[in-house]
Amino acid sequence: MKALRVWSKPDEVRMWLLCLPPGGGGARLFKDWADLLPPGLGVAALELPGRGSRLGEPQATSMTEAVAEFADAVEPILERPVMLFGHSMGAVLSLALARELRSRRGWRPLALVAAASEPPERRNIPASLADASSDASDEELTTWLRGLGGTSDELLASQEFLAEMLPALRADLALVEGAEWTGQPPLDCPLHVYVGERDAAVDGPGAARGWAVHTTREQPPRSFPGGHFFVQESADLVLAALAEDANTAVGGRLLRSR
């Protein structure tokens, strides 16, 4: 389906890493990971409408509809073990997807990794960056992006870039703001929290405590050099951690180093 981008050859995959991008981002962010992670750990990613390969489609504004589409799209890869990885808003979508698939078919991921993300019920209090909301002005959202880092001043000065980015970001914020997170049992899988040492949008210790309520198998948080986009800034360290956590999730049976 359009929502699922598969970056590895399926016949070589023993376990999938299913990635969900940050707000305004696309599935292509994870394409190179297929060549950098251990053989056997395949990389796939999900793409919301309105960005990347789905540019031109109407933006999704309902968490329920977006997650239902994702759940349909990932059916072909659920025959093998899956670890979910979400960056920023993608972490919140990962939790919602895991809940949806648990409700539909009793499925659970081998593990879930929440990177650079407050837990969903805390996402309207992002430390020093409180202007991130779907009804913020273009100027406020641009200032917020500048504060997060990871986007060059050249891009932030480009009207063409902002005309594409800001509607997607605003739609993504609306997805999270309109979702309901209470009333469901925690996931029965390891939940890893990855944080950036200089991330102004995420309180590392607070995020770890907040995410802990969503799992029965809390894991020690991992900290990486960098800010909100440490996933790209410290890619080698993040990929090594993902490979280790994936290998642990399957008891060291499936993966080997390149």
Tell me roughly what share of residues is in helical segments: 25-40%
Write down the overall geometry: globular
Q: How would you sum up the major sheet?
A: 8 strands, mixed
Low-confidence stretches are 123-131
The end-to-end span amounts to 30 Å
pLDDT averaged over residues? 88
- Counted by DSSP, the helix tally is 9
Which class do the helix and strand fractions yield? alpha/beta
Please give the radius of gyration in angstroms. Answer: 17 Å
Counted beta strands:
8
Strand content: 15-25%
Order of helices and strands: EEHEHEHEHHHEHEEHH
What does this structure look like?
The structure is a single chain. The protein is an alpha/beta fold and 258 residues long. Mean pLDDT is 88; it is low at 123-131. Helix 2 (63-73) packs across helix 3. The chain is 36% helix and 17% strand. Strands 1, 2, 3, 4, 5, 6, 7 and 8 form an eight-stranded mixed beta sheet that branches. It contains nine helices and eight strands. The longest helix has 19 residues, at 159-177.
